[in-house]
Amino acid sequence: MPSAKCTTTHRHTRRPGAFTLLELLVVIAIMTLLLSLLLPALSRLRAGAKAVKCMANLRVVAFDFQLFANESFDEDRGDSNDLPHGVFNFLDFAEREYRLDEFWVGEASGPQTLDGATDHMLCPSVPGALERTPRQPCGRRGIGPRDNVGYSFNARLYQRTLYLNGRPIVDRKTRVRSDVLRRLNVPVAFDVDGAAADLEETDPYFTAPALAGVYDVYSDARAWFPGYRHAGKMNVVFVGGYVRSTASATHEPGWDWKYQPE
């Protein structure tokens, strides 16, 4: 008799929950598509959050300016302590904001790196660190590097224009008076492109735009480096304490860039 053979049939079964290669590729493709859609949205969200933080920083500057310019301000005013109340050097205000020179906080043994969590003079959209140096004024020796500077102060508040034989010259003894607080639409500080200023070998700490119909020391536009880094816009804070974003800072109606102390 022919011997009986036991024939075993092997059947390949897929374990529950297992993926085929094709299914894995489909899942990967879907995830890639979702990420490509989500990443730009997340990037815009982060940029928007930075712009909001920037505006909050500038509001602090305006609040401090309103205090500093007030006749009843009785805290340290730096060199302006020698001036009557309600009269001050704009440089002293800038140094107070950066905690420079007479406004230094802590040990003055060496440079300090500004902390983004506590220093409102750091724009969150500007990469790189800033350092302040003790016993130095607000300038390249006091705060830097220049290409990491994110905010500029209104140069027309710092140094007004005088005229000598019809030629504009800088008044290095400019004094600001408390009546500036009535000029609500005068810009105090704003986003600046420190890197662009550094390329031109120019300081970004005090800048101002050239203005149509105005012939002054800023008419050559060599001291104007607007920082349009928030979705193509820059933030500007005014004496009145409000912040506005703009893609064209010199063409906004009502903005009083022309003002200078009398």
Which key features would you list for this structure?
262 residues, alpha+beta, five-stranded mixed sheet, three-stranded antiparallel sheet, 4 helices, 12 strands, 26% helix, elongated
Helices and strands in order, then pairings?
Layout: H1 21-69, E1 87-88, H2 90-98, E2 112-113, E3 131-132, E4 143-144, E5 151-154, H3 155-158, E6 161-164, E7 167-170, E8 176-177, E9 187-191, H4 194-199, E10 206-207, E11 234-238, E12 243-246
Parallel strand pairs: 5-10
Antiparallel strand pairs: 1-8, 2-3, 3-4, 5-9, 6-7, 9-11, 11-12
Descriptive notes:
There is one protein chain. The protein is elongated. The protein has helices at residues 21-69, 90-98, 155-158, 194-199; strands spanning 87-88, 112-113, 131-132, 143-144, 151-154, 161-164, 167-170, 176-177, 187-191, 206-207, 234-238, 243-246. With 262 residues, the chain is of the alpha+beta class. The protein has one domain (43-251).
In angstroms, what is the radius of gyration?
Answer: 29 Å
Helix content bin: 25-40%
* Biggest sheet statistics: 5 strands, mixed
Shape: elongated
Q: Describe the strand arrangement of the main beta sheet, using strand numbers.
A: 10-5-9-11-12
Number of strands: 12
Poorly predicted ranges: none
Q: List the helices and strands in order.
A: HEHEEEEHEEEEHEEE
Structural class determined from secondary elements: alpha+beta
Counting structural domains, the number is 1
* Strand residues, percent: 5-15%
Q: What's the number of helices?
A: 4
Give the N-to-C terminal Cα separation.
127 Å
Mean pLDDT: 91
